Amino acid sequence: MLHLRVISPAAQTSALLRVLRADGGVTHLTVARGAAVDPAGDLVQADVAREAANKVLADVQALGIVHTGGLTVSAVESVFSDAAERATRAAPGDPDDTVVWDELLEETHEESTLNVTFVAFLTIACLLAAIGVATNSPVTIVGAMVVGPEFGPLAALSVALFRRDRPLARRSVLALVAAFPVAMGITLVATLVWERFGWITAEEVMAAHYIDFIYQVGPFSLVVALLAGAAGMLSLVSAKSAALIGVFISVTTVPAAGYAVVAATLGEWQRAFQSVAQLAVNLVGIVVAGVLVLALLPRAGRRYGPFGQVVQMFSGRPRR
Fold first, then answer.
1. What span, in angstroms and rounded, lies between the C-alpha atoms of 158 and 115?
2. Are 5 and 72 in contact (CB under 8 A)?
3. N or C: which end of the chain has fewer CB within 10 A?
């Protein structure tokens, strides 16, 4: 379930309560008159079934309270209540299959922001990837995959394409287009220094067969990117963080960028171009898979998407 916390001007509280009471997916409704100080007003709180959240949030925002008061939504990990069970049963669909769009948009908007922190993480990841290439270390490559923050903008771009949200699309593309060249440029300088010290040699890189998968583009490159993108989007809409970590380890984005830099400094242009191709395949595959997942999952006003219909067919569970 989701916990809804609203600061409502006293004049709008009655209308807000009517909206919340009218939806069977809302429970644990409480009001504290005059409890809010800034902005001034009443504090209204409720728990909302995920399946009902899109409609409830839309109805509350239609009252204009986001401009005159405040609206906060947070996930509730555990709820022990018969009333909550009734609210969940009253809402159509399954909570794990429900995309709460306001929640997803807020998260992807934050993750797609181009700032110093994003560039710093991407740079560190590229440097780790370059070190992994130089030392023939798959463990270091995996570390670079986990540190890389690039899935955020890719997921945001998937959401933007699905919803035709041009501002979010521009924001996501800007984060990727601006951050990758900066990170790769810093990695280029560092790699040249390491080569000058003799820490990286062409012979060692060419003999590093444990990490050949980084630059070798094949049909499974796209397959893995599609599967990882699908798993990543599912983890975002269902709040499965453990699955998202697995996605980071699956895709060859940052390692390909790091390998391209190292290969270019050593004059191994074929491997450099192959690495760039690997990077492009992974980026495109993740975005395409994210869009497909959003298209197949249930949407507002529709109880079950294609996935849900198949599950219902074989599980025998009654439709609510």
1. 20
2. yes
3. C
Residue 245 in this model has a pLDDT that exceeds 70: no
Could you report the per-residue pLDDT of 181-218, keeping only the tens digit for each?
Answer: 999 999 999 999 999 998 888 888 888 788 888 888 88
Residue 211 lies in a domain: yes
- For residues 114-132, give the mean pLDDT: 94
CA distance 149 to 172: 12
Predicted local distance difference test score (pLDDT) of residue 274: 94
**β-pairing, 70-75 with 26-37?**
unpaired
Alpha-carbon distance 308 to 95, whole Å? 11
Q: How many residues does the chain have?
A: 320
Residue that finishes a domain, picked among 93, 123, 154 = 93
Alpha-carbon span 277 to 275, nearest angstrom: 5
**Type of residue found at 218:** G
Question: Which of 145-149, 162-166, 182-186 shows the highest mean pLDDT?
Answer: 182-186
Q: For residue 117, what are the β-bridge partners?
A: none
The one-letter amino acid code at 162 reads F
In 3D, which of 25, 89, 27 has the Cα closest to residue 54?
25
DSSP character at residue 53 = H
Is 175 among the domain residues? yes
Q: Are 89 and 52 in contact (CB under 8 A)?
A: no
**Tokens linked to 315:** 């599980």
Q: Look-up: residue for tokens 């191709």?
A: 277
Q: If phi over 0 gives left and psi between -120 and 50 gives alpha, with beta otherwise, what is residue 51?
A: alpha
Which is higher by pLDDT, 93 or 264?
A: 264
Residues 114 and 64 in one domain: no
* Among 177, 180, 178, 197, CA closest to 125: 180
Measure Cα distances from 243 to 146, 164, 237, 288 in Å: 12, 27, 12, 18
**Chain-wide mean pLDDT for the chain?**
85
| CA dihedral sign, ordered 192, 194, 196, 199 | negative
Residues 124 and 89 in one domain: no
The two three-digit tokens of residue 187, written as one number: 């990695």
